[in-house]
Amino acid sequence: MRELFTIGRADGPRVKELAVISGKGGTGKTSLVACFAALARNVVLADCDVDAPDLALVLAPEVIRRQPFSAGKRARIRPGHCTACGKCEELCRFDAIFFDGPGNGMVEKTFRVDPVACEGCGVCAWFCAEGAIEFGPVVNGEWYVSETRCGPMVHARLGIAEENSGKLVSMVRSNARRIAEERGLELVLIDGAPGIGCPVIASVTGATLVLAVTEPTLSGLHDLQRVAELTRHFGIPTLVLVNKWDLNPEVCERIGAWVREQGLGLAGRVRYDPAVTEAQIRGKSVIEYQRDGCASDIRAVWAEVEASLERPAFGPRTGGSHAYI
């Protein structure tokens, strides 16, 4: 397993990473990533929205490798050893222990741990005088390496109510980069998680360029401002794309003015087009479905993104706090 996390090989190409994120779900981020994949070809795709991965719905990956993901621990009470003293329930701050477990030869009822509510702190196991509580690693999800019509893809699925999504995202990115280096590909295209939380931070940290997707609404502007604050904190050059701009041209102009005031780059805007949904029903990106309409807008955006990736300012990250102008 050691080779899975080896990145930055000296004899390979310099791999760039483009992270596409949004302040909230539903902005069209994944649809755009699928279009970029069709336009770019010969890239490695990384679906880092591990809590709700859906890039596979458009790209239909063929899984060639799957691995379990384990990054946490959980308590489990062994009924045969439990004396029902109640110490574990008393100490549990997460209300994860209940007195309705099966009986044994000593007591009629024992305690049990709710695996969904358990946060894996281990306090119950530490203080159990009878040693009746097991505390060990659990499988939190799976990650996959697949082939798609647009190139190799690394993706994952976190289990329901599981934890450590940020660690799983880092694993997805690391393996995507490894594959790019092995195959001589120079770009990893990241479909990041929405919001500004841990999986988003894991999606963008150290990326070459971030493309923030927003919508022409006041809430879209607010979410964009939070995303921009995050990328500014990590010193990551950021471009902004306004999706479905023609639904509210006035707010679109307001977003454009704010982007210019902040010294960010405006990658372009994409019109609303029902063809996006029609293409997805057929398992295609809109780029593969038609040439006009919003497909022409997306091609123009991709041209701007490609040009930005080639600019010297988007070379290897060394930290700092600057933004693309």
Protein topology:
Blueprint: E1 16-22, H1 29-40, E2 44-47, H2 56-59, E3 62-69, E4 72-77, H3 87-91, E5 97-101, E6 110-113, H4 123-127, E7 133-138, E8 141-148, E9 151-158, H5 165-183, E10 187-194, H6 198-204, E11 209-214, H7 218-233, E12 238-243, H8 249-261, E13 265-270, H9 275-281, H10 286-289, H11 294-310
Parallel strand pairs: 1-10, 1-11, 2-9, 2-10, 11-12, 12-13
Antiparallel strand pairs: 3-8, 4-7, 5-6, 8-9
Task: Write a concise keyword list for the protein shown above.
11 helices, 2 domains, disordered C terminus, Alpha-Beta Plaits, 325 residues, alpha/beta, Rossmann fold, elongated, two-stranded antiparallel sheet, single chain, 34% helix, nine-stranded mixed beta sheet
Q: How would you explain this protein's 3D organization?
A:
The protein is α/β, with parallel strands linked by helices and 325 residues long. The chain folds into two domains: 2-70 and 141-314, P-loop containing nucleotide triphosphate hydrolases (Rossmann fold); 72-138, Alpha-Beta Plaits, CATH 3.30.70.20. It contains eleven helices and 13 strands. The strands form three sheets. Strands 3-8-9-2-10-1-11-12-13 form a nine-stranded mixed β-sheet, with helices on both faces. Strands 4-7 form a two-stranded antiparallel ribbon. A hairpin with an 8-residue loop joins β5 and β6. α1 (29-40) packs across α11 (294-310) and α5 (165-183) packs parallel to α6. The protein is elongated and about 75 Å long.
